[in-house]
Design a protein that fits this description.
The complex is a heterodimer.
Chain A: H1 2-13, H2 15-37
Chain B: H1 5-40, H2 52-58, E1 63-68, H3 70-73, H4 81-84, E2 93-98, H5 104-112, E3 122-126, H6 130-134, H7 142-148, H8 151-158, H9 165-175, H10 186-197, H11 200-233, H12 237-240, H13 251-265, H14 279-285, H15 295-303, H16 306-320, E4 324-328, H17 334-339, H18 344-358, E5 365-366, H19 387-401
Parallel strand pairs in B: 1-2, 1-3, 3-4, 4-5
Helix pairs in contact in B: 1-11, 5-8, 5-16, 8-10, 8-11, 9-10, 9-16, 10-11, 13-19, 15-18, 16-18
The chains are: A mainly alpha, B mainly alpha.
Chain lengths: ~50, ~400
């Protein structure tokens, strides 16, 4: 447990590791947003025949 | 940057996402190229409001892109062009972009979205008299226009750098007549209002909206690639398999076969109308008006039909993008319309207006007027093509592709 805490402390204080983790975090947010709202709809809506 | 780790990380993540999107588009483009001929023989209704496939189809020498409306798709039969030319018998296949209720204004937006990819390319614009002769105000009503409305096509037309301000101004005026399509699209509505306004203030507003419009188009384009990629990967290999069998077509024999078929399909009435589409005709026949009694109103309506204005917008767009279209009409069923109180002279006003609209642009027009007395050309009163009608159309398509029509 102590060694895990030491590892986390070391990682969080290392600039490059912290930046990499933050980048992955923001990238994941962007990907999640794309997955949630990014799909377009290119199918025409249902046709209502006008009796022509 | 060391003092702002969140800023640097979010910037890197953003550009990483942009790079991933670019790489996906490149990959999807190659994937689509591989299957475009397979897609041509499918119903790709799910991605009809995109433009990736159309753009790609235009670049294929052996695909003839064919735009149309219900006259193309409402009555399925084996003689429809995309089935008839499936095996590339004379060296080409038809790539059909059509849906029920598609109007000239919808097609104009669709074509505008092609931009410079249209330059020098041949394609077909199909239409039937019904929109002019039977539509309210001689145009598609909102119930037809709205389902076919494509945000991508509308944005491409609105923010096109290849189409003149005057043409965009005319298109915007008409597009604003269908407000339901714009209620949830504030940017598009704002830009269309600015275009339609045409004043100096309108031009400033349009310029302000332009970068956002272009950005939105880029995003929808990526979505379009994804939708097409997803559509293709869900098709079976069998469906996407393309066969090419060169053959000599005996047009006379195939027309005779189609004629026989249409006679059987319409043997319950004397007007050549499909039996399963005769109910409305029968209703109208129950109380026939005197001959020619409806001419005056019909002529007036045909002359002021909005569809002519929309056709002019479409033709202006095509001219400015340097496309080479064939304007492919359909005949009215003269005998049937005469029985309903519209004389042949009155019906001819439709053809006169058609030529008055198209001829100044110099594009070839096939109106099939000479088949007005052939009751088996169409399957119903609205000139939706019958198997026999399709055979005449197929012959024209073959002539057009092989440069026998200019």
């Amino acid at each position: 447990m102590k060694s895990l805490m030491t590892f986390i402390t070391t990682v969080s204080t290392n600039y490059w590791v912290r930046t990499a983790l933050l980048t992955a975090y923001y990238f994941a947010i962007i990907v999640a947003l794309i997955l949630m709202y990014g799909e377009g709809n290119f199918e025409p809506a249902e046709f209502i025949y006008q009796g022509y | 940057m060391k003092n702002a780790p969140h800023l640097s990380a979010s910037i890197v993540a953003f550009f990483g996402a942009v790079l991933a999107a670019v790489l996906f588009v490149v990959y999807a483009g190659r994937f689509e190229q591989k299957y475009i001929h397979g897609v041509a023989q499918l119903d790709f209704h799910q991605v009809l409001k995109g433009q990736v496939l159309q753009r790609l189809a235009f670049k294929q020498d052996d695909l003839l892109v064919f735009y149309g409306s219900s006259e193309v798709v409402l009555i399925p039969n084996d003689y429809q062009a995309y089935k008839y030319f499936k095996d590339y018998p004379t060296g080409f296949m038809v790539f059909t972009v059509a849906n029920k209720g598609t109007s000239m204004l919808s097609m104009a937006q669709d074509l505008a979205a092609l931009g410079p990819d249209m330059r020098g390319e041949k394609f077909v614009v199909s239409f039937a008299p019904a929109t002019v002769t039977m539509g309210p105000g001689g145009a598609m009503n909102a119930d037809n226009y709205d389902p076919n409305f494509s945000e991508l096509h509308a944005l491409e037309l609105t923010f096109s750098s290849y189409i003149s301000w005057e043409t965009k101004h005319l298109a915007a005026q008409r597009m604003l007549d269908y407000p339901n399509t714009l209620t949830e699209r504030p940017l598009l509505k704002f830009a269309l209002q600015a275009l339609a306004d045409g004043s100096t203030l309108g031009k400033i507003k349009y310029a302000l909206a332009w970068p956002l419009g272009k950005l939105q188009i880029s995003i929808i384009n990526i979505q379009d690639h994804y939708a097409v990629w997803d559509f293709i990967r869900h098709q079976s290999t069998e469906k996407l398999r393309v066969t090419r069998k060169e053959a000599t077509i005996d047009w006379g024999a195939d027309i005779a076969k189609a004629d026989e078929l249409q006679k059987k399909r319409s043997d319950g009435n004397t007007y050549g109308v499909d039996n399963d589409r005769w109910a409305r005709g029968e209703e109208l026949m129950a109380n026939l008006p005197p001959a020619g009694s409806k001419d005056e109103r019909f002529i007036e309506n045909v002359k002021i039909a909005l569809e002519w204005r929309d056709m002019q917008i479409l033709l202006r767009i095509v001219k400015e993008l340097d496309g080479h279209p064939l304007m492919l009409g359909r005949p009215m069923n003269v005998g049937l319309w005469e029985a309903l109180g519209y004389s042949e002279e009155a019906q001819n006003v439709y053809y006169e207006m058609l030529h008055q609209t198209v001829d100044p642009f110099g594009y070839p027009v096939i109106d099939f007027k000479e088949y007005g007395r052939d009751k088996y050309f169409s399957a119903d009163m609205a000139s939706h093509s019958s198997p026999k009608g399709w055979m005449y159309i197929n012959e024209i398509l073959d002539d057009f592709y092989h440069d026998r029509i200019h």
